């Protein structure tokens, strides 16, 4: 077994590999860029080596620097994680040349499966079901149209070297095929330096279901069940679960056996994933093979009990797998939600900055949090904005969903925007709960983007009762202040008015009988009784307890005299007032927000790459005004209507905050 391994990655996956290596008694080496000097994976590892500047092209993608770090520290093997160099044949070959083990497959398998065209040819030869299509080199857009007609519309036009949704277009007619071929080819050329594209039948109502395989290169190759990954936004996975709510035992077995056949065809060794597209009739077709550990591997671990990272390390060290196919049993249900630093209410724009408060839900047999961040750390503009992977396990799918909803309520993040409200909405969506999934789920359920109205409807009485109990508890503490004048005893009132979303709700509280170690009140709201119990401590940001016997977790932030409460993804500003103060509050004028319609505002924190206008210039609706770069993505800002530029408020090259003024119109 290895004595020391280097992790050629960062963030949550580096931390996850370090945890397993530590349990196995293996020392670890982290690598880091300028931006990751104080990162969690650097702190967790036994050693750390600086490998370059913040941009990944100057650090995490530098093969020679990582090989040199191995030599300098004596690391005998490298785990690549996912992304970066994990599927680079050149990286595996460079390590092999230096006598360093690669914890993954060999260069042959990486190369064979890394090319979408070649991998489909290999899959067909191995007897794996493939989507009808044309895998040859397509000369021009007219040939693409002829091929599309032969296959039958709709078709999918894909870049051979593509990934992450880049270089993909769906065409429903000749004109879309021409345009799709040209744009996919251009995108492929700029993203992958490879403009080859191919055409295949577009499967309608598709599901994205993948099979986890594991091979030791010594005759044993297994499949460890499937993962349902159909909940995607712009071809990026958002929710994954295992097993799939759609597959039956016969389809699972057939898919697993074909995945193993493909792995054997390329002499696969290590953990890998074979991805399939599955239609409404459970016909399945090979999509691609990922020759690495998948982001969503924890759900497989939770239902099988196997540590995939440990098994990868053991296989790389030359050990033979001790498990057989009949040893693989699926227990219960697991769901993974990807928690990102992005603003779902602003079309999922990335959010960067410092995590001023960060409290993930407590880990237990039902909750797992894989993260690479910590309170006080920063979400950098240079890398993927993932905060964590939140996983829940339950004996049934309904139990896993319920656990996820509760865990999302407990996830306390401040300082950056995050997508927890969107994840909470997905978990409460009836179509999701019913398991009626396709890769078009998000586009169909949220056709105009995500809005507050998409959040799960909750009984307002829950927030009213919790707010009243919080306020009453704080008042109970306040009257105990020392140094009061004799005879000047203050009694806490029982009657209050809770103002929620501008509506006043009179409440009456009286203590509930029970444990003196807990807060307990019966709250009367408009003639209905609500019993609230909690062990909440004053000042804690999470109010955990029960309302009428149902478990709730409400996040609390103090905002002046009011409270900002977060529950089930939604938030509300709540005031708790005396009846007299409530009457006066109702008379207060509402301060209208300033009119910002004449300004171009930065939709995200980022760098102002370019300005396309000058003061005094007339612009037309749709005309490009500026380009803002964030998370290595360029965002083009256009004029919403015709107008004249009155003033430029920001210079090219300046750093912008959210809603910072860029251009002012007359």
TrEMBL record:
Organism, scientific name: Azospirillum ramasamyi
Q: What is its EC number?
A: 6.4.1.3
Give every Lipoyl-binding domain span: 587-666
Gene Ontology BP, a term? lipid catabolic process
A GO term, aspect molecular function? propionyl-CoA carboxylase activity
Q: What is this protein called?
A: propionyl-CoA carboxylase
Top enzyme class, one word, equals: ligase
Q: Which cofactor does it need?
A: biotin
**So, what pathway does this thing act in?**
Metabolic intermediate metabolism; propanoyl-CoA degradation; succinyl-CoA from propanoyl-CoA: step 1/3
Q: Which UniProt keywords apply?
A: ATP-binding, Biotin, Ligase, Lipid degradation, Lipid metabolism, Magnesium, Manganese, Metal-binding, Nucleotide-binding, Plasmid, Transit peptide
Q: Which SMART domains match?
A: Biotin_carb_C
Q: Which Pfam families match?
A: Biotin_carb_C, Biotin_carb_N, Biotin_lipoyl, CPSase_L_D2, PCC_BT
| Domain Biotin carboxylation: from-to ranges | 1-447
């Amino acid at each position: 077994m290895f004595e020391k391994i280097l992790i050629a990655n960062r963030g949550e996956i580096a931390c996850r590999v370090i945890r397993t290596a530590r349990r196995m008694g293996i020392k670890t080496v982290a690598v880091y860029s300028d931006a990751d000097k104080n990162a969690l994976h650097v702190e967790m590892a036994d050693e750390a080596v600086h490998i370059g500047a913040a941009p990944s092209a100057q650090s995490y993608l530098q093969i020679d620097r990582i090989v040199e770090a191995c030599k300098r520290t004596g690391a005998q093997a490298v785990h690549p994680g996912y992304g970066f160099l994990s599927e680079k044949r050149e990286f595996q070959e460079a390590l092999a040349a230096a006598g360093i083990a690669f914890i993954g497959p060999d260069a042959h398998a990486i190369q064979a499966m890394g090319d979408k065209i070649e991998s489909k040819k290999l899959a067909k030869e191995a007897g794996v079901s493939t989507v009808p299509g044309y895998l040859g080199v397509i000369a021009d857009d007219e040939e693409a149209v002829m091929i599309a007609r032969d296959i039958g519309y709709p078709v999918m036009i894909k870049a051979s070297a593509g990934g992450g949704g880049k270089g993909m277009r769906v065409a429903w007619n000749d004109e879309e095929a021409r345009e799709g071929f040209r744009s996919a080819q251009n995108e492929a050329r700029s993203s992958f330096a490879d403009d080859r594209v191919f055409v295949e039948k577009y499967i309608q109502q598709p599901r994205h279901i993948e099979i986890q395989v594991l091979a030791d290169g010594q005759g044993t190759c297994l499949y460890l069940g499937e993962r349902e990954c159909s909940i995607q936004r712009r071809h990026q996975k958002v929710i994954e679960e295992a097993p799939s709510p759609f597959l039956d035992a016969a389809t699972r077995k057939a898919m697993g056996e074909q995945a193993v056949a493909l792995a054997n065809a390329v002499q696969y060794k290590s953990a890998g994933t074979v991805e399939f597209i599955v239609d409404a009739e459970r016909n399945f077709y090979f999509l691609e093979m990922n020759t690495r550990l998948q982001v969503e591997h924890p759900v497989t671990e939770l239902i099988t009990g196997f540590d995939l990272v440990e098994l990868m390390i053991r296989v790389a060290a030359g050990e033979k797998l001790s498990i057989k196919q009949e040893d693989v049993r699926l227990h219960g249900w697991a769901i993974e939600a990807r928690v990102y630093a992005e603003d779902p209410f602003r079309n999922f724009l990335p959010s960067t900055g410092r995590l001023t408060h960060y409290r993930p839900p407590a880990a237990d047999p039902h909750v797992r949090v894989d993260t690479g961040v910590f309170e006080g750390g920063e979400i950098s503009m240079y890398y993927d904005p993932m905060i964590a992977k939140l996983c829940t396990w339950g004996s049934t799918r309904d139990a896993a969903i319920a656990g996820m909803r509760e865990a999302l309520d407990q996830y306390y993040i401040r300082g950056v925007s995050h997508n927890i409200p969107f994840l909470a909405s997905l978990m409460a969506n009836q179509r999701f709960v019913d398991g009626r999934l396709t890769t078009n789920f998000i586009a169909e359920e949220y056709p105009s983007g995500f809005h507050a109205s998409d959040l799960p409807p909750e009984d307002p009485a829950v927030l009213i009762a919790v707010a009243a109990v919080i306020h009453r508890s704080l008042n109970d503490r306040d009257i105990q202040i020392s140094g009061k004048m004799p005879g000047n005893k203050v009694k806490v009132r029982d009657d209050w008015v809770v103002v929620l979303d501008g509506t006043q709700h009179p409440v009456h509280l009286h203590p509930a009988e029970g444990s003196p170690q807990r807060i307990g009140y019966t709250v009367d709201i408009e003639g209905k009784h609500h019993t609230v119990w909690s062990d909440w401590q004053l000042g804690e940001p999470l109010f955990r307890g029960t309302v009428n016997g149902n478990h709730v977790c409400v996040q609390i932030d103090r905002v002046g005299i009011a409270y900002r409460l977060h529950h089930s993804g939604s938030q509300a500003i709540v005031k708790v007032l005396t009846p007299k103060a409530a009457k006066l509050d109702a008379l207060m004028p509402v301060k209208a927000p300033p009119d910002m319609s004449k300004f171009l505002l930065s939709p995200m924190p980022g760098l102002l790459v370019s300005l396309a206008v000058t003061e005094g210039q007339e612009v037309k609706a749709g005309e490009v005004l500026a380009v803002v770069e964030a998370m290595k993505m360029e965002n083009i800002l256009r004029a919403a209507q015709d107008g004249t530029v009155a003033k430029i408020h920001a210079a090219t090259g300046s750093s912008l905050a959210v809603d910072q003024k860029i251009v002012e119109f007359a």
